[in-house]
Structure formats: C-alpha cells, structure tokens
Amino acid sequence: MSLKYFTAEGCNVCKVLLPKIQHLINEKFSNLSLEVIDTRQNPIIAADNQVFTIPVLIIYFESKEYQRFVRVFSLEDVKQKLERLVSLSEQE
C-alpha cells in the first residue's frame, strides 16, 4: 500500500495539508510510503496520473488506485480509508 500526494509551489492548501498527512502516516500507518510529487516540476507524472488540480492524494492498494481525494477532503476520511485497507491486508 502506498500514497501519492500531488502538490505545487504556491498552493497554500497543499502546504497546510502535507504536514498533517505526514503526521497521520508517521503516527498511525508507519509502514506506508508517501511520495510527494510537485506537478509543476513533474507534469508528465501528473498527467499520467490524471491529476489536473491540486491537492490530490491517491491511495494505492495492491498496485492499483483504490481511492482518490481531490481538492477538498478531510483527514478523517483519509484515515478511515487507510484503516479499512490495513484491516483488509491483515486478513489476507
């Protein structure tokens, strides 16, 4: 399971959310990897992932996109989705 966070310089919402997402992962989901991608520096990666606005957080489970959070989303929603995936992976 992994996450990609798409951001860009000058995005104030992105700047506020990133440390909160990092804290959530470090505290509750330390086995997950978070990749932070600047869409202006990496436009091809953004396009390949169909990211046309920011911020975007994508959760990957078993190498497939499981959930995409776009622009306005709550950390509680992210946490709930991650908890569900962790419980599913523990059942396997």
First-last Cα distance: 14 Å
| Low confidence ranges | none
Number of domains: 1
Radius of gyration: 13 Å
| CATH-defined architecture | 3-Layer(aba) Sandwich
Strand percentage, roughly?
25-35%
Please give the largest β-sheet: 4 strands, mixed
Q: Which CATH C-level class is it?
A: Alpha Beta
CATH superfamily: Glutaredoxin
Strand order of the biggest β-sheet = 2-1-3-4
The secondary-structure element order is EHEHEEH
Average the pLDDT over all residues and give the rounded result.
94
Class by SSE composition = alpha+beta
- Under CATH, the topology is which? Glutaredoxin
Overall outline = globular
What can be said about this structure in brief?
The chain has 92 residues and is α+β, with helices and mostly antiparallel strands. It contains 3 helices and 4 strands. It has a 4-stranded mixed beta sheet.
Report on this structure:
- There is one protein chain.
- This protein has helices spanning 12-28, 43-48, 75-91, and strands at residues 2-7, 33-38, 56-61, 64-70.
- The protein starts with a strand and ends with a helix.
- The protein has 3 helices and 4 strands.
- It has one domain: Glutaredoxin (3-Layer(aba) Sandwich), CATH 3.40.30.10.
- The radius of gyration is 13 Å and the shape is globular.
- A 4-stranded mixed beta sheet has the order 2-1-3-4.
- The longest helix is centred in the first third of the chain and has 17 residues, at 12-28.
- β3 (56-61) and β4 form a beta hairpin.
- With 92 residues, the chain is an alpha+beta fold.
